[in-house]
Amino acid sequence: MTIPQQPGERPVTSPGGTFPATGPRDVLGLAAQPPDGGAFDAHHPPAAELISDCVHCGFCLPTCPTYVLWGEEMDSPRGRIYLMKEGLEGEPLSDSMVTHFDRCLGCMSCVTACPSGVRYDRLIEDTRQQVERRHRRGPRERALRAAIFALFPYPRRLRLLRGPLRAYQASGLRRLVARTGLLPRLAPTLAALESLAPRLGSPARLPARMPAVGPRRAVVGMLTGCVQSAFFPEVNAATARVLAAEGCDVVILPDRQGCCGALSVHNGREEEARRFARRTLDAFAAAGVDFFVVNAAGCGSTLKEYGDLLRDDARYAALAADFAGKVRDLSELLDELGPVATRHPLPVTVAYHDACHLAHAQGVRAQPRRLLRDIPGLELREIADPEICCGSAGIWNVLHPGPAAELGDRKARTVLATGARLLVTANPGCLMQVAASVTRAGGDIALAHTAQVLDASLRARPVEELL
Ligand code: SF4
Ligand code: SF4
């Protein structure tokens, strides 16, 4: 796509092509408030100051999954930032602009890669909120999004799906549907959902509180999550056991928890996200926790940003900022506390997959690897191109099933190339996406959450239980 040059701008040649030079805000001519008729209204538009930080160097391009897939400048971080700048300068929010914003997975790989520290995370979050407020999608898209948001952020509704899903999986209908090959052609979105659904075990009921084993080192709240609690209750059970074994009183309060708001934040549904965030804060306000632990990467990055999310809310702003400071990924907290429980051997080769919202959004890469390497007998292997998203990205794989499957297939190839017997990651979305991709590739590798591997080692369970 050709980017029009602004009068007086100096073109810059970079790895991804030629672009207008950036400069200070007055050179760019960005108004303090977006002009009338532009893409954005005055309620938190993408900030001109942050846009100006981009020097168009193009270092982010090779790490961007949509640029890797299509090689289109407007489907790269740099291209999207350019569109935001155009929107601030008066360009209306066109269907094409929205398409390029919608295609962003929000993986934040570009944030890690950017040498200029561009806060693309803030930019795309503010942009998505504008899109949700100011753009009317087509009827099919509206209906699909309405269905997703009437279901996914509600753990109780998701849990109602368990029975029919288990019956479907047990009946052999799943194999029959796969053999016909018709579903992806007739209903790609339904086919994507069907392929992602994990094999369900028995639900594990969590107590309101689990006491520390031995001397107490911390009181820790724990998020049970939506997809995690409905489809991976065994991961939550393992998380609570590991925390207790490492000397934490675990406050769970499963009946008071709901969605943390991550899915809504990542899709520009600002008011809904705030409502969920307030509810989470209310649930744990009186629990007196030292830390709040999350075992789902996408939720963790949102909880750490509660201060920003509720910054305009006079009643909750201070509470949200304080709470956000206590949020830790499970691996982060265990690493911070240091081990006290005995690790028993687990003789297994493990490939560790960095969930984007853990590695790029939270900068948590070393801690899970250290925890896994500390397990006797466990051999850790690295996956090639770890910075490229697996294509899960919240609901992106449901909204964009074709490209998501392509990204999943790439990830499956690099995962299987490690020759490991077990793939470990820390996000339910990645677990489902990689499992579906590996199955499509005809590969054979077991999948587990970091918490399950640690739990098996602490309880001296045979490694076969994970395989
Ligand atoms: S968040 Fe991911 S998909 Fe979006 S622009 Fe950045 S690298 Fe590309
Ligand atoms: S976002 Fe960062 S890495 Fe990408 S073009 Fe701009 S300055 Fe370069």
Descriptors for this entry?
Fumarate Reductase Iron-sulfur Protein, Chain B, domain 2, 4 domains, four-stranded parallel β-sheet, 27 helices, single chain, binds iron/sulfur cluster, disordered N terminus, Rossmann fold, 467 residues, 11 strands, metal-binding, alpha/beta, 9% strand
Task: Please sum up the structure shown.
By secondary structure, the chain is α/β, with parallel strands linked by helices. The chain is built from 27 helices and eleven strands. A five-stranded mixed β-sheet has the order 3-5-4-6-7.
How would you summarize the topology of this molecule?
Layout: E1 11-14, E2 17-20, H1 25-28, H2 48-52, H3 65-70, H4 77-88, H5 95-102, H6 109-113, H7 120-134, H8 139-151, H9 155-160, H10 162-171, H11 173-180, H12 183-186, H13 188-196, E3 209-210, E4 218-222, H14 227-231, H15 233-245, E5 248-251, H16 262-266, H17 270-284, E6 291-294, H18 297-303, H19 306-309, H20 317-324, E7 327-329, H21 330-337, E8 348-352, H22 356-359, H23 366-373, E9 378-381, H24 396-399, H25 401-417, E10 422-425, H26 428-440, E11 446-449, H27 450-458
Parallel strand pairs: 4-5, 4-6, 6-7, 8-9, 8-10, 10-11
Antiparallel strand pairs: 1-2, 3-5
Helix pairs in contact: 15-27, 21-23, 25-26
The protein binds iron/sulfur cluster (SF4) (2 copies).
EC number: 1.1.99.14
Pfam family, one: Fer4_8
Enzyme class: oxidoreductase
